[in-house]
Structures are given as C-alpha cells and as structure tokens.
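Note to self: keep these together.
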Amino acid sequence: MQGIVLTKKQQEAVEYEGEQLLIRGIAGSGKTTVLLKQAHKILTKHKGQSVALITYNQTLARYAAELAALLKSDQLVVKTFHSWAYASLAKNGRKPQVISGTSQTDLIMDCINELKKIDPHRFFHESRFEEFLQDEIRWIKGMGTLTRDAYMKVERIGRGTKVKVDRSDREKIFDLFERYQSRLQLENRCDYDDYALLLRQQGVPESQKFDNILIDEAQDLQQVQLQLLKDCAKKRIIIAADKGQKIYKTSFSWRDIGVNITGGRTKILTDSHRSTEQIIRLAASLQHHDPLCKNKDDEFVPPDMPSRQGPEPVIVQCAGYMEEEVFVTNTIAQLRQAHPEWSIGLLSRAAASLNRYERSLNSKGIDCVQVKKEGASVLNAGVKLMTLHSAKGLEFDAVFIIRVREHTIPQIDKTQGEPDEEELAVERRLLYVSMTRSKSVLYMTYYDKPSRFIAEMNSGFYKHVKA
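Structure:
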C-alpha cells in the first residue's frame, strides 16, 4: 500500500477531512485503494480511533482484508455488512436462525398457497408472479417500509415496468408480506434482509460501532443497511459507489440515507487504472446502452479512456459446451505457461459450472481454486474460479467469461416472460462489471445463441473467432 502512487483526484479524496464523503468512480478507478489509503491516514493521524471497512460481497471483503493486512493495524476491521450485523445481533443476545435459499422460497410459496385458497387475486394464482413477489418482499425490507401505510405511499423507483402495480395490488402484496413475517416469527426465524431491521429495533451495541466507517460498493447495499451504518459512524462515514456497477435491485437516495453529498463532499474518479484501452472501450460500448447513460443520470460516471494498451478482447463462438470447455482450458494452459506470474479469473453465471471447469483444469495439471468455496487468496498468481457476482471489486491479469449466451446472460426464465428494461439493465451491468475485472486479456465464450449484449457491443472493438 505504501508504494502506490495516487492521481491528483485520488489524493484529493484521501486528504478529505470532512465527516461525510462520497467517492464516485468507474470500474478500476481505485475506489478500494482510496478507502484503504483513507483508513491508513486516519489510523496514523488519529491514533486510537477505530476504522471499519464494510462491503456487501464476501469475496471482496476477503480481498480488501488481504490488502488491509498490509497496513498492520488491529484498529482496522474489514467485514461484510451481514457478518458485522450478525456479530451485533449476537452481542444483543440473539443469534438469528436464518432462513435462505430454497427454504426461504418454500416458505414464501407456502404463504402464497395459503392466500390462494381465500383470495382470487392474480398474484396468488399465476406462477409468473412468484419471482416478482419474492423480490418485492426483499425490496420492502430493504426500504424499511414495514407498515401498510408506509408501503402504500412509497415510490417504487427502480422496480421495473413488467408488473404493473396499483393501490389494490399493493394491498395484496402487503397481505403476503405480513403472512410471511408472521410465519418467520412463529418459527423464531429471520432472513438476511431482517438483519438491519432487527438492529434498528434493538439498537446496535456500542462495542459494534466505529469512529470511522468506510463502505465499498455501496450501490449494492439496501437503504436500511446504509442508514444503519451511517448511524453507527461516530465521527466519519466515507462511501465509495458507482451506479453504473449496480448489480442488485436496490433503490435509495443519499438524502434518504442522511448523507450530504453537496459541495466538496463528492469526489469523482473517471480514470481506469486497471484495464487497457481496448477493454474499457469495449465495455463502454456495452455500457452506452445502460438507461443511466442514455438518460444522463446525474450519478452516472462516464469513463476516460486509459492510455495503457493491450490485445483486443476476443469473443469465441463454440459448437457446444464441451467445445467451450476444451477451448477455455487449453487457452488458460497456454497463458499459465507464458505468464506463470499472472492471476487468471474464470467467471461463470452459475456456480455449478465451476465444478466442471475445476475438474477439467486439474486434468490438464493446472492448479485452480474456487475462491468463494475455498476462501482462497485472490491476490496471488494462479487460476481463480468464481461466479460473476462474486467477482465484483476484484481484478485479474486475464479474465474468461463463459456462457455469454441468451438465457444465461441475461438470465431469462421463460415462464416469467421477457425481462423489462430495469431487469436488463441489471444483467447488462453484471456483464460490464465482469469484463472490467481484467487488466490485460479478456475472453468471452458462448455456444448456441449469443447473448443479446454481444450485439450491443461495438463489433470494431473485439475479435470474433470460432473455437
């Protein structure tokens, strides 16, 4: 960390001394580096003050912790929001029995089926609304609109247009929400979205508050989570965010959170210090289709093209998934031989695909690790396997994004109909984020029908080949 030379804009963000700061920056602009430099400055200048770096993603938290270890200070804590919240609840004497995944879905479906018996509303009788209802429950909790009256009045910004919702529809949604919450309480359980709500009710123990709270990738946290963290910062809160990399269906305003971003309280980083010009210009041609860009959203940060040069990104058409696997495995083997010092990220939409690639790479004598499963370092050389979501905030010398095809990226459930613009925007950003993990070499592979997002990219900015 000591040897990193900062740009003028980065240095301004590090030197800022106010109580609230928002750092807006494109992918690879050094937001995490600036946060860690801020942490180092605080620990040096204000000895005895505590500092917490909070993020949403477990893999990113591990990566940041590895970097933070270079600061050699036990006053700096790096956690995900949920690990911090769980520890806070435990300090209050409650260790939540958490329901998630298929168990959570099954419970919500039980509630829908119960309502189906007594209510003829389409939400409870048509399967195409099941995913929407689950997502709406999460959004209600994330916004903290826990009373019927509050939910009736709240603006459903960012909720898309595929499902039209009027006041009577909201009544039915809240009926489901209340039934689900009652079942959770009856079974003495909660879900992950309840953590912030429970702490807001119980209060956060003083031992779990910090003098300074730094938040990375804040755009993917929920409003109530950010409000809670803001209230737990005794002296200073510093937030790094980029709406252009928002890959979850969150919605909030900085004003509602209680953060003042006016005047000099916002620093904007437009330079990518990670990727080559070839990668950024291709990623930018995809991002050009994001509604944030098209609608000239105030918080959208357009990138400045980097000067560093590299090879053209390559999009590879494969005959099938086996041919794709052979191509990717062989190409990684060649890169490992040519650049043994490189880190290589293999990114997949589905975690199940990673097991197959792990076996394939091992059969070639190539050591690799599934980062999330094995808790492996992402700083050292070698091949790292992870999902697109887990790659958020990380960087690699070379990146392979597999199965960039329709129904995978974007992920489309045929039973739910065609996604609306907001859903497509989230999926597009997920691919954009994945592309910008690469420093030098980028491959995207597909078989069957290529992703519609490939057609959105400028064809003059990549090489299209057959495996």
